[in-house]
Write a structure and sequence with these properties.
Hydrogenase_HupF/HypC; alpha+beta; HypC/HybG/HupF family hydrogenase formation chaperone
C-alpha cells in the first residue's frame, strides 16, 4: 500500500527550484515540488507527498488530521515512514 503523507516545507533549494526540503514527522528530505509550480510553494506550506513528489498543497489542520489517521493504521504508515527515511532525491 502506498500512502500520501503530509509534510511541511522548510526551504526551497536555491540551486534546484523544483525541489524543497520538507519535514515529515521529523524526517527531512528533498521532495520534488514541480507538480505544484503553478500554485507556488513557500516555506511554511504543507504538502501531500507520494513517492517523492508533492501532489497538492493542504492546510495545517488537514495535515494534522491526515497524520492522526496514518498513525492509527499502523504498519502501512510505519513502512511508508521507513521508506521515506531511506530515500533521497539527488
Amino acid at each position: 500500500m502506498c500512502l500520501g503523507i503530509p509534510g511541511e516545507v522548510i526551504e526551497i533549494l536555491a540551486d534546484r527550484p523544483d525541489l524543497a526540503r520538507v519535514d515529515v514527522s521529523g524526517v527531512k528530505r528533498a521532495i520534488n515540488i514541480g507538480l505544484l509550480s503553478e500554485e507556488g510553494v513557500e516555506p511554511g506550506d504543507w504538502v501531500l507527498i507520494h513517492v517523492g513528489f508533492a501532489l497538492s498543497k493542504i492546510d495545517e489542520a488537514e495535515a494534522r488530521a491526515a497524520m492522526e489517521f496514518l498513525e492509527g493504521i499502523g504498519k502501512a504508515y510505519e513502512d511508508e515512514m521507513a521508506a521515506l527515511r531511506e530515500s533521497q532525491i539527488l
